[in-house]
Fold:
Amino acid sequence: MWIKTEPEPRNITWKGSMPHYDKVQTPLDLFRMFITEDILSNIVDQTNLNAMRKKNLALKLSLEELRRFLGVQMLMSILKLPAIRMYWENGIRYSPVADTMSRDRFISLRSFFHICDDTLMIPKGEVGHDKLFKIRRLYDTFRENLKKIDPEEIQSTDEQMIPFKGRIGFRQ
Structure:
């Protein structure tokens, strides 16, 4: 597994500025390059707000717990089981997931996970409606950080066609 238990000391500043891509040594460094502390703080605030609005529940999600939740989500995308609850079941139990957080807490965070404040969304059909509203801040930040990477001398652009039968309101 590629997750290090003890990070090596590096002189990389994560808050305020993005590190130079040459200093990226681990997948976690790459993740932090694009998903900043500002984005994570916003997700914590919006998830807590969503829980309060929907169920009047004080979720008390912290930055550290959000990081663990996202790590569990990533692990689950690599090792897929037929049902989420199976990661915690006796006999099948997957320790890297089950030891990180309880099943009920994970399901609770998953159900209230939110990136934006829905009350600010302009309804469909009105002037100023944004089809990407729910992910706009994440998208814009991610895109700005991509622009900070210096282009390489030799680049390759590849396009792959993926069959898709659904509907999408925006296309390249």
